[in-house]
Amino acid sequence: MAVIDIRIELKRGVADPEGTNTRKTLESLGFKGIESVKSVKVFEIELDMSDEDALKAGDEYCRRLLANPVVQSYRVSLR
Fold first, then answer.
1. Which element (helix H / strand E) includes 33?
2. pTM confidence score
3. Which of 3, 18, 37, 75 has its CA 20 to 30 Å from the CA of residue 12?
């Protein structure tokens, strides 16, 4: 059994309205010193395969479904 984490985030220069709105809302609530907020999507997937095969599978999941390579980058790691 392998557990992988897949982290998907927007590439540099791509607008992140969710992060921007979250930062503005935090500031409106009185929180200070917030430089930026980025939205990130994380998937935790349990797989019945070796660690090496799980990492390969995670990469395939991202390339075929989970990530848009035009605007997003992703990282697959073992838990």
1. none
2. 0.89
3. 3
